[in-house]
Automatic annotation (TrEMBL):
Function: Condenses 4-methyl-5-(beta-hydroxyethyl)thiazole monophosphate (THZ-P) and 2-methyl-4-amino-5-hydroxymethyl pyrimidine pyrophosphate (HMP-PP) to form thiamine monophosphate (TMP).
Cofactor notes: Binds 1 Mg(2+) ion per subunit.
The family this protein is said to belong to: Belongs to the thiamine-phosphate synthase family.
CDD domains assigned: TMP_TenI
Listed Pfam families: TMP-TENI (PF02581)
Lineage: Bacteria, Pseudomonadati, Pseudomonadota, Alphaproteobacteria, Hyphomicrobiales
Native source organism of the sequence: Alsobacter sp. KACC 23698
Gene that encodes it: thiE
Entry keyword set: Magnesium, Metal-binding, Thiamine biosynthesis, Transferase
Domain Thiamine phosphate synthase/TenI per the UniProt entry, residue ranges: 10-192
SUPFAM superfamilies xref list: Thiamin phosphate synthase
E.C. no: 2.5.1.3
GO biological process, one term: thiamine diphosphate biosynthetic process
Reaction it catalyzes: 2-[(2R,5Z)-2-carboxy-4-methylthiazol-5(2H)-ylidene]ethyl phosphate + 4-amino-2-methyl-5-(diphosphooxymethyl)pyrimidine + 2 H(+) = thiamine phosphate + CO2 + diphosphate; 4-methyl-5-(2-phosphooxyethyl)-thiazole + 4-amino-2-methyl-5-(diphosphooxymethyl)pyrimidine + H(+) = thiamine phosphate + diphosphate; 2-(2-carboxy-4-methylthiazol-5-yl)ethyl phosphate + 4-amino-2-methyl-5-(diphosphooxymethyl)pyrimidine + 2 H(+) = thiamine phosphate + CO2 + diphosphate
Name recorded for this polypeptide: Thiamine-phosphate synthase
Length: 217
């Protein structure tokens, strides 16, 4: 079958509380219309049954649009529902063991935010990309590590050849500076999930990213 191609450019990470007023599917559909290229289902509170149901519903929305679905942490559910990949943190297990569980054809992302974590990140088909941050403090993940800032991001990027997506406190005010570091993508939560119009918010962020890349060329 082979691994699903993926584009980190504008990566949406869902938050159950923030999408609740509009609904998960409506929020994600609008964001994809606006230009989101990858979606991660992150929900630390739902039980496995509800989480699997949400993943299946998202797959029905995303597959026809060619947008991959990444599942946060719950690798067994990701494999069972046919998600495109899994994203794990530093405390979510050995990436090699997760790769053994999900097989060679699923995307595997790993959070990393220090030189040591970059050095320890396994390539060779184990990990496909790094989620780097947090760039700024963010309320959507209260237990996050200390923010690294745009300058810290720029210093980390050369330390590992894997593709990287920046995350943590990114929105319209700093997306240009983040994208200008040369990172392969920008991941957002509240900048889209909390926006009055998720489609417009995604479209604005996607335009910022495109403009930065055009200027770099």
């Amino acid at each position: 079958m082979g691994k699903t191609p993926f584009d980190l450019s504008l990566y949406l990470v869902t938050d159950p509380a923030l999408v609740e007023p509009r609904g998960l599917l409506a929020t994600v559909e609008a964001a994809v219309r606006g230009g989101v290229t990858l979606v991660q289902l992150r929900d630390k509170t739902s039980d496995d049954r509800d989480f699997a149901a949400a993943a299946e519903a998202l797959l029905a929305v995303l597959k026809p649009r060619g947008v991959p679905l990444i599942v946060n942490d719950r690798a067994a559910i990701a494999k069972a529902v046919g998600a495109d990949g899994v994203h794990i943190g530093q405390d979510d297990g050995d990436p090699r063991r997760v790769r053994d569980l999900i097989g060679p054809d699923m995307i595997l992302g790993l959070s990393a935010g220090t030189p040591a974590e970059f050095a320890a990140a396994p390539g060779d088909g184990i990990v496909d990309y790094l989620g780097v941050g947090p760039i700024r403090a963010t309320g959507t993940k209260p237990d996050h590590d200390p923010p690294i800032g745009v300058e810290g991001l720029a210093r980390l990027l050369p330390l590992c050849p894997l593709p990287k997506v920046a995350i943590g406190g990114i929105g319209p005010a700093n997306a240009e500076a983040v994208a200008a570091t040369g990172v392969e993508g920008v991941a957002v939560v509240s900048a889209i999930c909390s926006a009055p119009d998720p489609e417009a918010a995604a479209r604005s962020l996607a335009m910022i990213i495109r403009n930065v890349r055009a200027a770099r060329r």
